[in-house]
Specification:
By secondary structure, the chain is α+β, with helices and mostly antiparallel strands. It folds into two domains: about 60 residues; about 170 residues, no CATH class. It contains five helices and five strands; from the N terminus they run αβαβααβββα. A five-stranded mixed sheet has the order 1-5-4-2-3. The radius of gyration is 30 Å and the shape is elongated.
């Protein structure tokens, strides 16, 4: 007949079993903590990656002038003008204005503190772009707006170039840097598009010459490009400075 284990032996076995269970639970707990740490590191790393990458990519443009960024000016068509209207034609916020061109260079617009015109400090917009009716007020105040379509928005190199251009024209003290780059969205103006093969457009609201006060001489200026060109933009802004606008002394 088998001898029954002594009470002390049973207690030892139970203690050993409990010890193994505790060890297993500790290992599982450590694994859970480790996994959480790894996930947290990945999340933080992903959040930090884009700003770091953007900074790294911009280093290539640090020593370049505005005219050296992007494609040569030859990728752009010649500027052309259309008679302008809408000077001081302020419509209530929320009112949709049916601009006839893609993109607009003039017309009725909103006049809302902090929104229209958009602040000079922000030079580049993506999906959070202000409404067209706000940006047209910027045009009235002498801004040049570079509009880019979905082709450019989906091109990482082109967007790096736009960020570099925005940096070159940064700040709020030099009014010759009245500039905004903004996307032309597929939904804008019922789906109006740029001319075939053109993915960038510059617009400016000209007074018809610096110092001119006759509204009848005002005109919208347009230039279309197949790619981002700092050289063409630089030439455009020199030819049509902020002083050549209906309200150049307004921010």
């Amino acid at each position: 007949m088998a001898k029954k284990p002594a009470k002390s032996d049973r207690q030892a076995v139970i203690a050993q079993t409990l010890k193994k269970q505790r060890s297993g639970e500790q290992r599982r707990g450590l694994m859970i903590v480790l996994v959480c740490v790894v996930v947290a590191v990945l999340i933080v790393g992903a959040a930090a990656f884009k700003p770091v990458k953007d900074w790294w990519d911009q280093r290539a443009y640090a020593s370049k002038t505005l005219a050296e960024i992007g494609a040569p000016a030859s990728v752009c068509q010649k500027p052309f003008t259309k008679p302008a209207d809408g000077n001081q034609d302020h419509v209530p916020q929320g009112t949709h204005v049916d601009y006839k061109t893609a993109p607009p260079a003039f017309g009725p617009h909103w006049n809302v503190a902090g929104l229209a015109p958009a602040p000079m400090a922000r030079k580049l917009y993506t999906s959070d772009r202000p409404p067209l009716e706000a940006l047209v007020h910027n045009l009235e105040h002498g801004y040049t707006i570079l509009w880019y379509d979905q082709t450019i928005a989906q091109d990482s190199k082109a967007m790096d170039q736009l960020r570099a251009i925005a940096d070159k024209l940064g700040g709020t003290t030099n009014w010759r840097h009245k500039f905004i780059a903004a996307p032309w969205k597929p939904s804008d103006e019922g789906g109006k598009k740029f001319p075939d093969g053109q993915h960038v457009a510059f617009t400016h609201w000209s007074a018809g010459g610096s110092g001119n006060t006759d509204p009848k001489k005002q005109k919208g200026v347009f230039e279309y490009c197949s790619d981002v060109s700092g050289a063409a933009l630089s030439s455009f802004m020199l030819q049509y400075p902020y002083t050549d606008s209906p309200e150049p002394q307004s921010m």
